[in-house]
Specification:
single chain; about 150 residues; Hypothetical Protein Ychn, Chain: A; globular
Length: about 150
């Protein structure tokens, strides 16, 4: 009988823990804090990617997709700037080329640094369709910063 009571207490503790985890992850009861509606914006964010690591690309594309879903375009204006090894993300044969294309259709702008393209011997025809080319990635970053864009280095 004592053993059965311990088992019940353990099960109850586990259920309370799972319920608490559900609240933390956003699937709690209706009285949990609701997300506030977004205003009319404009919200402008530049994502800078200079990594050849697919994990960085996935994190970037996931963050961009989340903003598109939560905030929408407009009021959000989103741009992904790839330079250096990060240019691999924007090649037409990249593993995430389809996701890039989908986000472009939703209004996200993807840009490649021409200076990095020259250094890495990447031609414009190797880029995914719709990718814009800017003269210099750092100049684009500075231009967006001066225009009040938020910046995220991935």
């Amino acid at each position: 009988m004592k053993e059965d009571g311990k088992r019940r207490v353990g099960l109850l503790s586990m259920l309370w823990g799972l319920w608490g985890l559900g609240i933390l992850l956003g699937s709690g009861p209706a009285w949990a804090a609701a997300e506030q509606p977004w205003g009319s914006g404009p919200y402008r964010m530049l994502f800078e990617v200079d990594s050849a690591q697919p994990a960085a690309w996935n994190m970037t594309l996931g963050a961009v997709a989340h903003i598109v879903k939560r905030v929408g375009i407009p009021p959000a204006r989103l741009e992904v700037l790839a330079w250096g090894p990060g240019l691999q993300m924007l090649l037409k044969n990249a593993p995430d080329a389809m996701e890039v294309s989908i986000l472009q259709m939703r209004g996200v702008r993807f840009v490649a640094c021409q200076t990095s393209m020259r250094r890495l011997h990447i031609r414009t025809d190797q880029l995914a369709p719709g990718v814009a080319v800017v003269a210099g990635g750092m100049a684009e970053l500075m231009k967006r910063h001066n225009a009040g864009w938020a910046e995220v280095k991935m």
